[in-house]
Amino acid sequence: MIHDAKMMADIAKAKPALDNVSRRGILGGAGALVLALSLRPARADETQTKEQKEQKFGADGMPHGWRDDPKVFVAIAPDGTVTVTNHRSDMGQGIRTSVAFTVADELEADWSKVKVVQAWGDEIRFGNQDTDGSRSTRHFFQHFRHAGAAARLMLIQAAAKQWGVPASEVTAVNHTLTHTKSGRTLGYGAVAKAAAELPVPTDVKLKDPKDFRYIGTGKIGLIDNFDITTGKAVYGLDTKLDGMLYAVVARPAVYGGKVKSFDDSEAKKVPGVVKIFKIDGGEIPSEFMPLGGVAVVAKNTWSAMKARDALKITWDDGPNAGYDTDAFRKELEAAARKPGKVVRTQGDIDGALAKAKTKVQAEYFVPHLAQAPMEPPAAVARVKDGFCEAWACVQGPQAANDRLMKALKLPDDKVKVNVTLLGGGFGRKSKPDYVVEAALCSQAVGGAPVKLAWTREDDLHHGFYHTISVEHLEAGLDEKGMPVAWLHRSVAPTIGSIFAPDPKHELPFELGMGLVNTPLNIPNMRLENPEAAAHVRIGWFRSVSNIPHAFAIQSFVSELAHAAGREPKEYLLELIGPDRKISPTEIGDVWNYGEDPKRYPIETGRLRGVIEAAAKGAGWGRQMPKGTGLGIAGHYSFVTYTAVAAEVEVDDKGQVKVKAIDIAVDCGPQVNPERIRSQMEGAVVMGMGLALTSEITFKQGRAVQNNFDGYEVLRIDAAPKAVRVHLVPTGAWDGPLGGVGEPGVPPVAPAIANAIFAATGRRVRQLPIRDQLSA
Amino acid sequence: MMRPALTACLTLILTAAPALASPCGDRIDGVSKRVQSEVSQSISANTSGQGNAAKRGGEGVTGTEGQRANESPQAPPEKSAQAGQGADAAQQAKVALEEARTADQKGDAQACEAALTRAEQQLKKAP
């Protein structure tokens, strides 16, 4: 009997020549099996009409779309073991578990007999693999249900054929096929091979959700839990190959810097050094390609690092050598105080501001941040005989595949990217520059496999940073204290700057993260985006531009409530207004997270619902002891609604202690409640870090912070005693799914800032809070 | 009882009133539908993940499409830098449309017409 994992490995090796592999040969070789291998499926866009192509949303619109072919995703061994192939990167969010139990549920598989294997990078085969944007469950849940249901039907058909009975007389329940009239039974493994030879049915009936065994129950633990907790799980840094060498790179400290010359005479004296060579780079925009520098390949990482230290490199720092974040903040503030490009307007803002009884104005600042995943970027690559194979902790294997093709000048069928577990990602590992570096190192040493590791310092010094922003808000209040005019200028360097030279303005997808799609019910509103240049690589950071937008808007609403003498939660709810559905097309949001504006309007009732749920959880309205306070914030992001109520204590030295967080989430159908809870808990910790301590600054173009001593993520002694997650139930299982990975972050910082105000009467308008209150 | 001549006169005034009050209003309705359609089209055109949206958007607004075209071959052919440019144009068309509405409500026909013309120009930029 062939073990199914080995079989999957054999199939994986078949890429890129998969189309040429004899399917019959593999099945024959197995002696039994398998629902595992099909001919390469056609691209979705090759089979659709022009009309169907015209507007695509969600997974339909992603590069290479989606697949639901059970012959791609499901394998059943003769012993009945079910192996599900997961094509999304797992960085701790548990998607491997969710994908596996979704398939298993529709398959009616016994969970104890289910395994999961990781797909390599091949979007033609598996569909889109970009694990970003909080989209994995949102885009693929229904498709994996279909894959499992189709496999179940094929097993039923195979059993019926074997028994010579109609398929309608056969049931599949918990890994057992039963002929209902005779009582005969078969295990799944007994008919797997016959089932594999059947065509994939197109008319598949999904289970009634009331019959779900695993989906939505919250009772399924991580499928990788044992391996993770016993150190067996393989992350990017764990990959080992025979004859492997180790490498590090000395990169330009300033974005756009280049190597003018280098002296490696001392570095070569370090025992174990194999090769030192220059990597080209320094182009602006950098895209996802390496920054360049000098690479050191050695027999172990320590030797490589010591040799790197011994290099004498003369750098041309390039155009960003003067970048100083203190000075740049002043530039942003100046830009925010002048009119900028209007990105949304309604009513007569100038007239309403002029007539307003009270005017309120405030500015908010959010610094650069680093994703700082606990596992820094790492990759192993082997470039030999015209073929590149990589093993890496990447969020986007296809993106890595494409950059390897470019760097090595190889065709697609000569590149393969294997995906390991990711020790955190948060957007950093969507950019595969480190995979390319590993491949260049392997190429330079003649094809030996090379592990390229980034140190923590490398990660903090050469990242794709969260942008830096100033948010300028003005409001005019009427005699009841409600805003009749709202002006918001958001100014920040754009992520677009890593793709195009100096685009100046933020892009629609950034503006659509809580700015343009602000759901507040205000008659006169103008939202502007003044110009800002980028001087470092700007990238995605968990929840992206929602962070500054939510911090500013939710803080400002609290400020307005205070100005109006109103209770902040009721004021926020009144400002959101009555329950209604706002179409993105009516407010000019041209992003909408890529989702159909008809299926995914902004539902203000759901936003109100999470605010109420968080407030209830926190005991909103109770008497608070002196020096403590409750603050609240709600936000819509990644088509999900979240709200946070924070309880803080500020001592007489101005030290802030977050005592408790209540976070409520409405993400539509809750596929994996256990993981939703953990994602919200993780988001709270990350949100608290950026609220309280995290900041990357630059002097002379160089990142100042070196390691976790300078770049502080939340530490265990600062974590709140209680993080209570409230899952707000929503409607039917066919309702729109929302994202989960990112939406928990944005409301954390403003809720804490609002709680600090409630506790002390002092308003925090810049992050991180650190010791601002001790002054 | 109202005299026939007066009745006819009032009828004429009442039926003519909307057109006389807002000649720009009729154009607003027409442009509004086109803008909403273009916004929806832009959402669709940008539905390909954050990386591709950033690439297209950046190239779209800076006019550098194709300079690094071979670096993101995963982007479907219909999702080019033009899509990024189209999104910006659709958003700016919506802004101009709302400016037209505001001008119309203030009875400033000239400003309304000018804003609508800007909206239409933006719509023409969309791919």
Architecture overview:
The complex is a heterodimer of chains A (775) and B (127). Residues 1-53 of chain A have low confidence and may be disordered. In chain A, the strands form eight sheets. A seven-stranded mixed sheet of chain A has the order 9-10-7-17-14-15-16, sandwiched between helices. In chain A, strands 12-20-19-18-13 form a five-stranded mixed sheet, with helices on both faces. In chain A, α7 crosses α8 (188-196) and α17 (546-564) packs across α18. The N and C termini of chain A lie far apart (71 Å). Chain A is globular and about 85 Å long. With 775 residues, chain A is an alpha+beta fold. In chain A, α5 (95-107) links the parallel β2 and β3 (114-118). In chain B, α2 (23-45) runs antiparallel to α4 (81-105) and α4 runs antiparallel to α5 (109-125). The model of chain B is unreliable at 4-20 and 65-80 (pLDDT under 50). The interface between A and B is large, with 70 and 48 residues. Chain B: Residues 1-21 form the signal peptide. Chain B: Residues 37-51, 64-73 have a biased composition (Polar residues). Chain B: Keywords: Signal. Chain B: Residues 22-113 are annotated as: Disordered. Chain B: Residues 26-36, 96-107 have a biased composition (Basic and acidic residues).
Q: Using DSSP, what is the number of strands of chain B?
A: 0
Biggest sheet of chain B, open or closed, and with what strands and sense?
A: none
Low-pLDDT segments of chain A: 1-53
Average pLDDT taken over every residue of chain A: 92
- State the oligomer: heterodimer
Q: Give the strand content of chain B.
A: under 5%
Radius of gyration of chain A: 27 Å
* Distance, first to last CA of chain A: 71 Å
Low-confidence stretches of chain B: 4-20, 65-80
Number of H- or I-type helical stretches of chain B:
5
Helix fraction of chain A, binned, reads 25-40%
Widest β-sheet, arrangement of strands of chain A = 9-10-7-17-14-15-16
Largest interface: A-B, 70 and 48 residues
Query: Rough shape of chain B?
Result: elongated
Q: Could you say which structural class the secondary elements and strand pairing of chain B correspond to?
A: mainly alpha
Please outline the major beta sheet of chain A.
Answer: 7 strands, mixed
Q: Compute the gyration radius of chain B: what is it?
A: 22 Å
Shape of chain A: globular
Q: What number is the mean pLDDT of chain B?
A: 72
